[in-house]
Amino acid sequence: MKNNLTKQTLLIFWRHALRYKLPLIVITLGIILTVATDMVRPFLIRNLFNVLTTPGSNQGDQVLNVIYGILALAFIHNIIWRVIGFTNNFFQPRVMSDLMNTCYRYIQLHSNSFFDNNFVGGIVTKVRRLSRSFESFMDNLYFSISRTAIRVLAVLVILMFYKPLIGLAMLVWIIVYVGFALAFAKYKLPIDILKASQDTKTTAHLADTVTNHQNVKLFSAYNREVGKFERLTNELFRLRKKTWDLGQIGETFQGFSMMILEFVVMIIAYRYWKQGALTIGDFALLQAYLNDIFSSLWDIGRYIRTTYESIADGNEMTAMLVQPHAIVDVPGASKLQVAKGAISFRNVDFHYFAEQPILK
Questions:
Q1: Confidence class of residue 78 from pLDDT cuts 50, 70 and 90?
Q2: DSSP for residue 24
Q3: How far apart are CA 316 and CA 193, in angstroms?
Q4: Mean pLDDT score of the chain, rounded to an integer?
């Protein structure tokens, strides 16, 4: 059921996002171009180091040319990001509003029994979470996971042609690293779903008791409601701490695996250097790409986890959106036409006691 809800949530996101194809294309192309500029910069730095360590008559001009190239690349990179940012400023808020409208229209068509069986605070929280989960999902998908995947692929391709042995070592490490991150995030997902559900219960209890504060006072229910709320928050604390502890375990693996990869790459690079196949600039290039890979992949586990968490948050509202309406119009039913409204009392009587009629 949970897997089905996840698919339904992703389908809802896709249908709403696909209404705005042009912003999607602009953001996608923009991210590819920013990664391309990031990949060129280490080569410019490599050239800079090589020029500085190779004396010549025109060394000064060569250094200035490299510096101007780095400046121009940074300018282009910044312009592309601004285009992405302004495009996204329209795209995400527009889709979030559409999602809220979809939820509102669908909920309003539910029967009275639906509202009797669901707390108002819980419904409001779930509607708000669906739009927020889309924002979190798209941020992670576009600006984190997709961008990281493109960067890693680009570095691998470059290193495979440049120094195949180093590229192969990095490929093996990435497969192990990303495989662990995916498996770990999948293992953690059920706990994230429980945490999201508990957070909804806590928020719903808070909203409903505040709304019905007069009844809490009237029926002397203060101690009972405070005790119930404390139990809810304690359970939320337990689940929240568990998810955070699991996150720390995942980051421990990340730190040690990155340390091992850097050691292996530097040892291979040292052997290339002893053979005269590597320059000082090449060392700078490798270090730049290692730092780039590490900074990108360090948070990949967190990106995957937060993506799963955002989907888990959206699944609660999706469960309501896929719940059929209890009362639906019959296909082809004729429209109701009321010519005149009236209330008629016929053979109506009411009394508390037989000898004391109130209405006759």
A1: very high
A2: H
A3: 9
A4: 82
